[in-house]
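Sync notes, pocket subgroup
Present: LS, DG
LS reminded everyone that the earlier model was apo-only. Rerun requested with 2-aminohexanedioic acid included. Inputs:
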Amino acid sequence: MTELVRNYISGKWVEASSGDTFNSINPATEEVIAPITKSTAADVNAAVEAAKQAYQGWRLTPAPRRGEILFRVAQVLQERKEALAQLMTQEMGKVIAEARGDVQEAIDMAFYMGGEGRRLLGYTAPVEMPNKFGMALRDSAGVVALVTPWNFPIAVPSWKMLPALIAGNAVVWKPSEDTPAVSAAFVQVFTDAGLPPGVLNLVLGAGEVGAALIKHPAVRVISFTGSTATGLNVYAQAAALGKKVSLEMGGKNAILVMDDANLELATQAITWSAFGTTGQRCTATSRLIVQKGIKPKLVEALVEKGRALKLGYGIDESVQVGPLVNQKALDKVESYVKIGASEGARAVLGGARAEMPRGFFFQPTLYDNVKAGSRIEQEEIFGPVLSIVEVGSLEEAIQVNNNVAYGLSSSIFTENVNAAFRAIRDLTTGIVYINHGTTGAEIQFPFGGTRGTGNGMREAGQTALDTFTEWKSVYVDFSGRLQRAQIDNDAIIGKIE
Ligand code: UN1
């Protein structure tokens, strides 16, 4: 067994105060990756304390210097890309090519946010009086808490950490208990890139760690990505304490395919978006909303392509679909087999666990005859399961798309520019694709969704800075005398006579 994976607090790798451990498991082989230190509220307190101390120095470090450290993070990530990708595949199961892509998103984000060190743009505007100046600045928020999932163990944390750090905040990070080893390796990158001790702290463990972190009075901002149930709970607890929260939660994303679509492109995109990452992306396609005319051919092509996918341990370059992350995820996906059958859906591909010697594998699955409004059409399954709904028109397709509790991404395949623009206008998701699958968002644009997917915040792009900064409006009066507007505005009128 490899060495114990520890917390990182105040620039030191330390065991949790409980002395307890848990194991991180490879979902393809069910072997133990490493024992992991199991934190409690006491460890959270120590990490927040460290962040509070370090914040005072970090916020005063000029932003261009902070940016240089982020550029160095990007370089170290590039050097370690393969090693990090290998560890990621071992720990959470995504195939190696996708694991490399996961690390690449963090590299892109590190360069992007490193550049913000010389921007972090605020603005000036004219003011009422002569000899007076006004400006709005982005200020750091203080100690921020990040709670992240296992499905993008480096990319998603990077979307939070890098904007938080460039803006001058100190961070306490609680990653998923399914990906602690790769999280620790990611933190080491920041240390080796020269981030001062205490600016980024890692606390490993289960739900109670996140709960203690959210409640800690010194934590002002919480950025969460994960399940809707947990996210809403985080939101409620943080709201009671008046904290700022950014949430990224579930998805039930659809690809709309119109009769005039390019069949080959659509088949390729649907297969990749539905079965890539074993369907375990919040952006994964889990609904196919297809017009009647093209449906028979498209379903036939999807079955053929899906049947040829190679399942297995994703460390093998030829494997296309890895396992689900753990037993619980497998059980959840399997529970929808019965639900689908009871709703009259018909599995035209898969529909069961995959026969493998070990690991949490489920077959790529296509359900035909799915009714709009049924449970498999409405609920997030988070596995390689695609529900096919037949529609008659573009209007109906858009209506079916919009009629779910989530609103992350959607896509339409059509060769008709009028249909494409109507879809852009009427699809009510945070991300819309034309002739492209529902996955593959780039870091320089806002990422997030409407309805139950989020709470109105967006990650990535310039919008990421909104989560991790407070606006400070500054007025400078350099007139050296009492001016009329001050008399009117400042309630000092009584003193003037
Ligand atoms: C997620 O599944 O939480 O757009 C993030 C995509 C990736 C990120 C997915 N760039 O599919």
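DG: The first helix runs from residue 41 to 60.
LS: The longest strand covers residues 132-140.
Action: DG to write up.
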